[in-house]
Amino acid sequence: MSDHPISSFPLADLAGLPADLxxxxxxxxxxxxxxxxxxxxxxxxPEELRAFMDYHDALMERPGGLSKAEREMIVxxxxxxxxxxxxxxxxxxxxxxxxxxxxxxxxxxxxxxxADLTPRERAMLTYAVKVALQAEEVGPEDHAALHAxxxxxxxxxxxxxxxxxFGMSNRIANMAAIRPNEAFYLMGRSPLPxxx
Amino acid sequence: MSDHPISSFPLADLAGLPADLxxxxxxxxxxxxxxxxxxxxxxxxPEELRAFMDYHDALMERPGGLSKAEREMIVxxxxxxxxxxxxxxxxxxxxxxxxxxxxxxxxxxxxxxxADLTPRERAMLTYAVKVALQAEEVGPEDHAALHAxxxxxxxxxxxxxxxxxFGMSNRIANMAAIRPNEAFYLMGRSPLPxxx
Amino acid sequence: MSDHPISSFPLADLAGLPADLxxxxxxxxxxxxxxxxxxxxxxxxPEELRAFMDYHDALMERPGGLSKAEREMIVxxxxxxxxxxxxxxxxxxxxxxxxxxxxxxxxxxxxxxxADLTPRERAMLTYAVKVALQAEEVGPEDHAALHAxxxxxxxxxxxxxxxxxFGMSNRIANMAAIRPNEAFYLMGRSPLPxxx
Amino acid sequence: MSDHPISSFPLADLAGLPADLxxxxxxxxxxxxxxxxxxxxxxxxPEELRAFMDYHDALMERPGGLSKAEREMIVxxxxxxxxxxxxxxxxxxxxxxxxxxxxxxxxxxxxxxxADLTPRERAMLTYAVKVALQAEEVGPEDHAALHAxxxxxxxxxxxxxxxxxFGMSNRIANMAAIRPNEAFYLMGRSPLPxxx
Amino acid sequence: MSDHPISSFPLADLAGLPADLxxxxxxxxxxxxxxxxxxxxxxxxPEELRAFMDYHDALMERPGGLSKAEREMIVxxxxxxxxxxxxxxxxxxxxxxxxxxxxxxxxxxxxxxxADLTPRERAMLTYAVKVALQAEEVGPEDHAALHAxxxxxxxxxxxxxxxxxFGMSNRIANMAAIRPNEAFYLMGRSPLPxxx
Amino acid sequence: MSDHPISSFPLADLAGLPADLxxxxxxxxxxxxxxxxxxxxxxxxPEELRAFMDYHDALMERPGGLSKAEREMIVxxxxxxxxxxxxxxxxxxxxxxxxxxxxxxxxxxxxxxxADLTPRERAMLTYAVKVALQAEEVGPEDHAALHAxxxxxxxxxxxxxxxxxFGMSNRIANMAAIRPNEAFYLMGRSPLPxxx
Lengths: 196, 196, 196, 196, 196, 196
Prior knowledge:
6 copies of one chain form a homohexamer. Chain A is mainly α. Chain A has helices at residues 19-32, 37-42, 46-60, 68-81, 85-98, 104-111, 119-134, 140-148, 153-176.
């Protein structure tokens, strides 16, 4: 299985990256035990990779607002609508861990409408998916629905901006056929009840 | 998590089912260690359940032709296109086991075009998905493509009929919001390589 | 006109079918005066044919609940959305007879929204067509709408299950290009008023 | 059944129409035995009705080129794609008569790809339906395909212009819910073989 | 730039047209300073051209009802949904002039939902676009919405009929790749404020 | 007209931005004579704005590869498919200037297939639009088509990445209803030939 290419575009050697990017990627691989393939796949474009990481962190590490699990849930739901293998599998793993729920990622990926969601999460994903698929039709009524579900205007921006950012990421991963690391498939699945 | 309903329609007691159905379901639960929820969800309609099981077995247990793994791959790919949570998660588990491949089910479910497929499997899923989504446009050129990929006419029928049967199953599961058993999520994931 | 093939897959001789299937098909042909082509087209797969007939009868001959005409109306509306020539033409004939209405089948087939429907029939077809085309989006609000239109939960299952079953049937008929018998075209058209 | 409205917009009295329009409509009703409802539904706009009839006749009565049956086949196929009840039922009747074929209209209406078509008719409908549904994608390759099927440039214009004109007509009939006369349903169905 | 063809179908010499058509086209070209290419592109079919002009004038020059700017706004919005280059660019110019607004045509063409519209205009375009794209779903609720926005039944017909007529025009222009005159691009853009 | 809001989310004062962002925006506004509204609309999120500008410049100012006009053409075509008013109108202006062609932006925005394109540009936009709308279906055959049209692998990445980046930008602009500056509408339209 290890002979499947990581990308349909050329890979670059991480050692050739600018020091700041090498450092940031080292931190991530130290923590997760491997280098996520998306970094290898974008390394031939260091400036784009840096902007990508900056944008990602600005949205996903931003203090306050949505919980980390909520943000990952948005990523999984919208990436599934965009049929992005890398993002669904990698962020599905992170969602399982952040939400301490081994079932939620697969549920959201196959059909978020049928997942075990709170009303707040349902409102959040309804907006995220509309931004992903029909952003041209977003209007005041959508923001009113989020307001009714308890979201601040700042959180509305987060939901939509995460959907938009991963809309870009999904398209890049699909155009380059970026392959998810095998480690992601099993992460966060364990504290599963012994019996159904 | 155990308080989520198994179906939005009423459940029936298995003990009330005709003996033949009780027997068949016992065989399955003895083998897998639990009663798949789809049987509970359809038990209020014993005649439909019997025809459902007969049709399923006629297609999925038929001697010769497609391999068991190929049949499950068709189920996962078409059920994912139909966003059917029950079928993707339950048959994804079976596909992992039949194919002895812990990655293939998630790959096929998110985007079969990017999965690790042989050319034969790619041709097979191309036809299965066309039957699922645009059956009205199927024509001689589709059968010619399957023939070129080495499929017999009998196997072509299998591919299309499995897609059609699960097209029914997916619609029933979606209308009743049938919930997959939690045991399915982890089945067949284990012989994963230690490191990505 | 008689040189058009009945199916793009091989036909089997009815005389080679198991006795129970020969008997059931004889009953039908005795009643209608001809053997509906769908039986000829599926005869090469006797087990599938038997399950198909069992499932069909469980839904379409079930005592109580929806009227026979209502069930056929569901078949025509959903088969038309799926562009299935065999099912629209064959069940259109049965609908004309069951509903004692020579106009309704063509109306429903071309655009059910513009057909001469009661509010109950309109609610019924709205749900049936949603199950046919967007089952993944079915939710509690759809069942609430049916409830408001006077349908019991048992009848809701019938509507959705008929739509799902013919969703399978439509895909098989389209993949095999099953040709409707010519007799269907004119059945039930006669008690038409002499003048428009 | 006669209490269903002919249009959701107000009807005008034919007697109030300008003499030329009254004359033209009389000729038609003398020939067919009734006044087609489309004239009643458009009579409140005499200038639009006159332009409509002029345009219709320029395309449908034009000497040379496509046969009358071919023109009606284009109308039925594209009106079916546009789900226009009036046009499918009224022109389906005319197609049956012009083609001396009691089956062809229903076949084309449900799924023209599965109808009993010659290769020439298939090429013709492929283009007509593309103009109806994806005109923005029409390009030189489409005209090359028609040329290869033996159509002159003049006939290509006819095919596309008939599709475009009935695209207008379909939209007007759908917005006003114009009801087809009951007489259309049975016209041209008779010389059906005695037995299927 | 002048070597791009005006149509993919043959052009006819205007001098060969019947006198009435020559006269009408002269009036237009005298007023606008050039002969709009649509006339050149349709001149090979004088009867169709005459009916086209008659229908156009019946809808667009009709006394009373919608303002001239409103009618052109319908043309631009629906022609943009149909991706018709000729109609968006030519009628965009006329809309800028009629509405005395240099911004509105581009806004409506790119996304009418985000344009600077009054509630009345928004209701009008909602209906016009529904007739353009989903006429088969138009029903009483759409007319009720127009009524609530202050439109008479006569004006509703105008909105829908203009959408339908340009639906035809868009298809003809797209099938023949009719090229807009270059003069249209700049018309009505001038009284723009000096600074943003 | 000046009372239309620039965004449906709160605007931030540019004076409150970090110095590096103030400097970069000053450079742009000095050059164009105004501050593009997108900066005002994103100023409440300085980190996102910085990453946005970095990513934009990495793709749009990158030395070598696609010409500046080609890059803007990709932006206009994909933003039009996404119905993004801000991007079509702002980048339409830049495209007119970069390509020294007052017609091309409107042509590409309404229907890029009918625009005055070279075969190279047509291949480029075919891929860009596929990444925008169906990235999940991108495969080797798409890259082979670009190769055949003379594009290097590096340029293929540029085309797809620009489409993906503006896919994000379009979604943000649509969710916040970001209004284009009025100055963009007229930029680059002038050296228009005196007569069509």
